[in-house]
Amino acid sequence: MDKQDRDTTRYVLREGHEVVAYGVSDDPEDRLQEHQRNHPRITMTEVRPAVTRESALAWELLRLSSTAAPTLGKDQIQQGLARVPHASFLRVGLLTLSLAMVILGGQ
């Protein structure tokens, strides 16, 4: 099995004490500057250690699904899952979890 690069940082964006977004980037400093152009009070907390891109995208999708499930539709969840590589064993589990959350949320 090939060792994958662990070059992707996961992060949490906050405005004050409120979490406003989750994301992933291979250049978190640049990404923070992009966010701060429109929202100057945004701060970023990096989640360590750095991980593979595949793992980071799965982490991001899980955070988005668990925090926004009541407002997400099935199409939005499937679009998010499309960002996770097809070879990922996490993809099937995340799809199951995400759709269950939508169904339990009544959408």
Give structural notes.
This protein has 107 residues and is α+β, with helices and mostly antiparallel strands. The protein has one domain (8-104). It has helices spanning 28-38, 53-68, 74-82, 89-104; strands spanning 8-15, 18-25, 42-51. The chain has a 3-stranded antiparallel β-sheet, with helices on both faces. A hairpin with a 2-residue loop joins strand 1 (8-15) and strand 2. The radius of gyration is 15 Å and the shape is globular.
Please summarize the sheet with the most strands: 3 strands, antiparallel
Q: Using only CA atoms, what is the Rg?
A: 15 Å
Number of DSSP strands?
A: 3
What is the helical fraction, as a range of percent?
Answer: 40-55%
Termini gap: 40 Å
Q: Report the principal-axis shape.
A: globular
For the record, the count of structural domains works out to 1
Give me the number of helical elements.
Answer: 4
Order of helices and strands: EEHEHHH
Question: What proportion strand?
Answer: 15-25%
